[in-house]
C-alpha cells in the first residue's frame, strides 16, 4: 500500500496520549484548530490516461501529517459517474490504522426542492457512526447540513454563489443552525493557473474553534472531501 511505502518519508504530528471520551485515532484533533487537506498529484490523471482514485494528505498548520486518506471506488463507476461516483474514503493514522471511514452512495446530481441530494456518512472508528453531511437544496448557493449520529441537525455549511476558483480562495462557512454565527470555514485554495486547469490536485484549508467537538471536526473534514468531488473535480 502507498501509505506504508511513503510512511518513512513523511514528518508526522506527534501522537497524543489517550483522551477520555474521544474516539480512538481522533486525539490529534483535540490539539488543533486548523487542517490543511492536500490531494496528491497524479501524473496519469494529468496525461488523461486514467480516472484515478483520489488520495489526500491531512496536515496541521505546521505541515506535519496527521492522516492519510485513500479513496476506494469501482474503476468502471469512476468513468461512468465521474464526480458523482460512490466511494469509501479510508483515513489512516501514523501507524497505518484505519481510524475514520466515510461512505458516499450513488445519488442524483440534480437538485430538487425539499430533497437531500448528496450525502456522506462518517464512522470513527470504522463501524461506529458519528454523523453525516447532507447537501440540501438552494437555488443559488451550495448548502449542507452537518448532522450527528442520530441525524439531528448540528450545524450548517454555506458556500459562495460563484464557484469559479480563478485567482482567489473560495470559502464555505461553517454556521450555527440559525445561520447567524460563523464558527469556522472550509477554504478551497487557489493553486495556480496550470495546476487548476489540468489537474485535480486540490488543496483545502479548514478552520474551526479549538474546543469544537472532535466529531464535528471530522465531519468538516468529510465535508471538504464531498465539496471537492462535487464542485472541483475535472471529469476526464
From TrEMBL:
The keyword S-adenosyl-L-methionine belongs to this UniProt entry's keyword annotation: no
Tell me the keywords, alphabetical order: Calcium, Lipoprotein, Palmitate
**Which family is this protein grouped under?**
Belongs to the phospholipid scramblase family.
| Pfam families recorded | Scramblase
Required cofactor(s): Ca(2+)
Please give the SUPFAM superfamilies that the UniProt record associates with this protein: Tubby C-terminal domain-like (SSF54518)
Question: From which organism does this entry originate?
Answer: Felis catus
The cross-references to PANTHER family, in alphabetical order and at most eight, read: PHOSPHOLIPID SCRAMBLASE, PHOSPHOLIPID SCRAMBLASE-RELATED
Role summary = May mediate accelerated ATP-independent bidirectional transbilayer migration of phospholipids upon binding calcium ions that results in a loss of phospholipid asymmetry in the plasma membrane.
InterPro entries documented for this protein: Scramblase, Tubby-like_C
Task: Name it.
Answer: Phospholipid scramblase
Amino acid at each position: 500500500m502507498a501509505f506504508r511505502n511513503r510512511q518513512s518519508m513523511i514528518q508526522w504530528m506527534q501522537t497524543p496520549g489517550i483522551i477520555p471520551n474521544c474516539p480512538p485515532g481522533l486525539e490529534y484533533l483535540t490539539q488543533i484548530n486548523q487542517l490543511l487537506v492536500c490531494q496528491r498529484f497524479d501524473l496519469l490523471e494529468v496525461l488523461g490516461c486514467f480516472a484515478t482514485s483520489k488520495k489526500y494528505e491531512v496536515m496541521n498548520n505546521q505541515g506535519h501529517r496527521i492522516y492519510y486518506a485513500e479513496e476506494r471506488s469501482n474503476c468502471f463507476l469512476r468513468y461512468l459517474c465521474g464526480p458523482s461516483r460512490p466511494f469509501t474514503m479510508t483515513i489512516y493514522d501514523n501507524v497505518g490504522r484505519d481510524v475514520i471511514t466515510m461512505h458516499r452512495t450513488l445519488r442524483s446530481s440534480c437538485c430538487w426542492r425539499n430533497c437531500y441530494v448528496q450525502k456522506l456518512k462518517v464512522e470513527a472508528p470504522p463501524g461506529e457512526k458519528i454523523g453525516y453531511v447532507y447537501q440540501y437544496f438552494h437555488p443559488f448557493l451550495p448548502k449542507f447540513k452537518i448532522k450527528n449520529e442520530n441525524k439531528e441537525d448540528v450545524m450548517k455549511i454555506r458556500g459562495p454563489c460563484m464557484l469559479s476558483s480563478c485567482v482567489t480562495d473560495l470559502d464555505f462557512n461553517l454556521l450555527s443552525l440559525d445561520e447567524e454565527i460563523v464558527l469556522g470555514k472550509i477554504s478551497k485554495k487557489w493553486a495556480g493557473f496550470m495546476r487548476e486547469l489540468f489537474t485535480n490536485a486540490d488543496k483545502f484549508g479548514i478552520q474551526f474553534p479549538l474546543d469544537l467537538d472532535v466529531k464535528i471536526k471530522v465531519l468538516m473534514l468529510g465535508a471538504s472531501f464531498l465539496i471537492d468531488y462535487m464542485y472541483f473535480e475535472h471529469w476526464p
